[in-house]
Amino acid sequence: AQSVTQLDSQVPVFEEAPVELRCNYSSSVSVYLFWYVQYPNQGLQLLLKYLSGSTLVKGINGFEAEFNKSQTSFHLRKPSVHISDTAEYFCAVINSGYSTLTFGKGTMLLVSP
Amino acid sequence: DAGVTQSPTHLIKTRGQHVTLRCSPISGHKSVSWYQQVLGQGPQFIFQYYEKEERGRGNFPDRFSARQFPNYSSELNVNALLLGDSALYLCASSVTGVMTEAFFGQGTRLTVV
Prior knowledge:
The complex is a heterodimer. Chain A is mainly beta. Chain A has no helices and 12 strands. In chain A, strand 8 and strand 9 form a beta hairpin. Chain B has strands at residues 5-7, 10-13, 19-24, 31-37, 44-50, 53-57, 64-68, 74-78, 87-94, 103-104, 108-112. The A-B interface holds A 32, 36, 41-46, 49, 51, 90, 92, 94, 97-106 and B 4, 33, 35, 40-45, 48, 55-56, 58, 90, 92, 97-100, 102-107, 109.
């Protein structure tokens, strides 16, 4: 079965600093990977997805992620964070039938002034 | 265009009661998926429906059931509520059930006391 592991439950960072949120996946087949953001008391919003092609994926709000097959990773990065980026971030993988998402436990990004 | 709408946004139920949660997909979307997100965890897949047929079911007890109506809206029903059913219930809609193109609603926060 496919799975994802988010290595950090919480990442504190100062405003305008760079950030990396880590995600490792486990799969014996080709993977499609996603990052979602969840603001307090909100649903999930898609930040970006890797389906094929370039391993560097750009998403909304200045976020990007790099698919690394040799390290089975899909880390999320932003060069300069804002207070408004404070939220929970979820890495997810899709099953072979493309019908089910399996999520990690989430990483809480806390941006302080 | 309206996004995925879920109702109610919040509700409180007593152990042993029954609850019905509702989801209206984006216009033109024929598939609805349900996910449960317990506090501090990532969302977990419960059901997927496409064209009123169940296409997938996650590892949840028979107390959980769902259906999809001719207008593609969906209901999630939970019987004999337990404290552990307290969670945010998320609905996602897509055109054909392929989750690479899915959109999530804001969720229904269920508290069981």
